[in-house]
Amino acid sequence: MAAVTTALLATGVTGATGAVAAPAATAPDRTAAVPSRLLPLVERSAERLLTADEVAAAKWGTDSPVDDPARERQVLEDVARQATELGGDPAATVRIFRDQIEANKVVQRALLRRWDADPSRAPAERPDLSRIRREINRINGELVRAIAGSAAARTAPSCAGRLTAGALATVRQKRLDILHTAALARALPSVCADETAATR
Description:
The chain has 200 residues and is mostly helical. It has a single domain, classed as Chorismate Mutase Domain, subunit A (Up-down Bundle). Helix content is 68%, strand content 0%. The protein contains ten helices and no strands. The longest helix is centred in the middle third of the chain and has 28 residues, at 90-117.
């Protein structure tokens, strides 16, 4: 999904404000045809990604590592079970969620490095990590449903282009900064089914 990364990072994101610049005149035509079954997957991916800020804030100044293998394993087991219950593809769901988890860690690591370098930019309060994880679990459930409901779109030849269009629309709608835009691209490479994904 290199095309997704390239397209997202060329959207005119401004590092100073976190806002996305106005899209080019041709951009609306690219997003207008985004299929409704694929767009919810991208939107839930971005929603899940935005929880990384609070996760990082909860871990800031503690011994809690970014990598949490036990938690990650539990998440993957849970989403595989949910996918099976919905009649979805548990293997595809796990592949997609592995990328979701790595994307979340991209944001966490970047924010923790930023705060280490300049503690004045660190959050003043530490959120409750258990509350954040409940919210992540809620989003996970919605994302599993979006994955299960998008099988045809994910296996279509047009998936990559439509996924990119959906990601661009989501970046603009949620006004993602460059860090979260890059992380969203990291969250999506396993969405479109191909031979490479099938062998992971």
